[in-house]
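User: Hey, quick favor. My workstation is busy. Could you predict this chain's structure for me?
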Amino acid sequence: MESVTFAMLGGGWRSEFYTRIANAAPERFCLRAVWIRNPEKAEQYRQKYGVPVAASFEELLDCLLYTSPSPRDMRRSR
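Assistant: No problem, here it is.
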């Protein structure tokens, strides 16, 4: 089974929830990066969860643009 690649905006409770899931099941999920506006909070998040933290929203998009499947790959086969 292919893993799901994703990135997240923000470092609140919901992001922490999904980060814990991704860390617990790395064969199923690939968290490319998290973007948190506050640099201090971003560094704390990186240290706590060991995930990449994007320095800007543009950097977060770059992480996704180069790792996301094409729309053709995303269609479900019937």
